[in-house]
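Quick one, tokens below:
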């Protein structure tokens, strides 16, 4: 009985902390100009376990602060989002994500290396709806969770979609509007729906 009360108290405290973070975030995310950037840099670096050089514009949403770890020179432009509730998002140094893009780990994981740039309107999502039954509405069938790996030096173009359980190899390029459903080799340019190899950036060994 005592252990049950202790666990209930811990859950209650965690809920209070999360609600407090929501309140702080709601204020910080809407402060404009340099004062807003400075305020977010000072506060978010502790919640995000971040390196130096945070640049977070207005309207950026975080869920699961304690599950998100970012390196130095982390830049996210307005109206973007990072979701890591019961999940993991790890990002290396010199990361840049443009306006209205989303990293959604759900209950899986998203792992991003150094020097990665993501254009606007990009969706990176480590989960899919289960849709095996035609007699049950899709929204009631739950999700299947996976992982996404984006290695060093990758450029993801505007309006691209990265689906779960794929690896995008180092120094590759995902063209605008591409939907990546399979692994991408390093130093490769891919495009289309679903994404296919367009060319290689270097001469790859046979």
């Amino acid at each position: 009985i005592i252990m049950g009360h202790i666990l209930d108290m811990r859950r209650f405290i965690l809920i209070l902390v999360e609600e407090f973070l929501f309140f702080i975030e709601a204020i910080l995310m809407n402060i404009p100009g340099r004062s807003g950037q400075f305020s977010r840099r000072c506060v978010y670096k502790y919640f995000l376990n971040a390196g130096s050089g945070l640049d977070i514009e207005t309207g950026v949403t975080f869920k699961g602060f304690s599950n998100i770890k970012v390196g130095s020179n982390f830049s996210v432009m307005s109206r973007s989002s990072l979701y890591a509730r019961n999940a993991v998002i790890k990002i290396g140094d010199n990361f840049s994500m443009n306006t209205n893009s989303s990293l959604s780990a759900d209950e899986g994981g998203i792992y991003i290396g150094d020097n990665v740039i993501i254009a606007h309107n990009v969706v990176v999502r480590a989960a899919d709806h289960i849709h095996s039954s035609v007699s049950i509405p899709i929204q009631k069938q739950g999700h299947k969770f996976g992982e996404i790996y984006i290695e060093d030096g990758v450029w993801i173009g505007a309006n691209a979609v990265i689906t779960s359980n794929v690896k995008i190899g180092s120094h590759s390029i995902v063209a605008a509007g591409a939907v990546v459903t399979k692994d991408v080799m390093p130093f490769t340019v891919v495009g289309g729906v679903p994404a296919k190899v367009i060319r290689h950036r270097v001469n790859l060994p046979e």
